[in-house]
Amino acid sequence: MAKKKKAMPRRASTNHRSSRATPPATLPNRRAYTILDYRLEKPHFEVRQVRRGDGMRYGVRGDLSAPAPPIRESKYLSRAQSIDIYRWMLLNRKMEAALENLYKQGHVVGGVYFGLGQEACSCASAYALKPEEWMGPLIRNQGALLVRGFLARDIMMQYMAKAGSPTHGRDASSHFGDIAKHNVVAPISTLGDLIPVLAGVALGARLQGKNIAVMTYIGDGGQSTGVTYEGLNFAAVQNLGLVLLVENNLWGYSTPAAMQFRVEDLAERAIAYGIPGVIVDGTDACQVYDAAHEACMRARRGEGPTLIEAKMMRMKGHAIHDAAEYVPRPLFEYWQKRDPLARFENYLVNVKKWLTRADNLKLIEDVDRELEADRELAMSSPMPAPETAAGGVYCEGGCHELKLKYGMPKSNRGKVARSRREAAVHQG
Ligand SMILES: Cc1ncc(C[n+]2csc(CCOP(=O)(O)OP(=O)(O)O)c2C)c(N)n1
Ligand SMILES: [Mg+2]
After folding, report:
1. Residues, beta carbon < 5 Å, ion ligand 2
2. CA-CA 20 to 30 A from 357: which of 45, 124, 158, 234?
């Protein structure tokens, strides 16, 4: 009698390329990905539509009572660098307060946009770039403009459409850049379009023989655009050094994040591009800097893009015309406790003791003095002369001299022509 074969326990195949249509039940079907999360707290609440009479309003559900987390110690920032970032954040905050006053006094042409509550994200990320690298800010990243070398007076004059403003009065908000000195691409209003443009800048540098970091921003609303996908995918497949900060400030105009996307964390989007995704508390300058610094290092090594999701809250309306009455008050109170500037100040003065109270007061006075001088200069500077209105619209020959920043492009044109000649000889 034939010996009955002993039933062997089924083992999962380790060959992932097996052509078997139905894998054995034990084969792990789930994949695991890692999203680095720097946060010290993970808030859990939900903004939902609730009915009130015939109308609708937003309500918030969840525990909003937690105290603010501490600032996470940076792995990289020195004392001097930390104080530097704090100073930029202070200037960012105070400049926007001055802009609000200028608007209320009737000096601003058009609207004003604010990055209140987002100063750590703007300033600490921009601080991770080298001067010779590039950035493309959005309207809320006025702090990033300051870090890149624009002065508060440039931004104020721009909003007042003064002749001495970066666009000489041609544009009345933050649509300006500088490709000669500051390496800043002007914000593009169609959301997401900066992403392929910055990827192109990184490609241009690569063709000139250098891997650089290029940084740009996109909001929780704007990240849903098709061009965001196209630009980031292009950067990913080309290993371009794009550092994309997804500023999840919980609102896109008056639409809450929960009504814009289904994923819990926008950093998860990185998985689909095959690039690293990182989550930071956008109100913590140290976390923002560390993630941006690591992404920039990766970019400079030629390893490709990184997506950083910075979680925070837009602490004003979309622009000055918007009183943000649709935002549930408890949310403002919750994020007010997480104010990036007050917490960083407390960290530097009381936790690290890197700034004495007296030094802090002096720093604040210096910023106030600088800002007041810039405000006065912006106020007293002239509007553009009417007869110049048509100038500077089209390139008038030589006004946009494009210079190579990093070196002669590497070309294999000679090689290609030679191999074509050789192919023709063989065919002939
Ligand atoms: C492609 C595109 N669609 C719509 C708009 C109009 N728009 C300008 S800002 C804005 C809200 C953006 O929200 P979010 O991306 O979350 O940025 P936030 O304002 O919160 O910083 C919209 C819809 C636009 N500028 N571009
Ligand atoms: Mg938003």
Report:
1. 219-220, 249, 252
2. 124
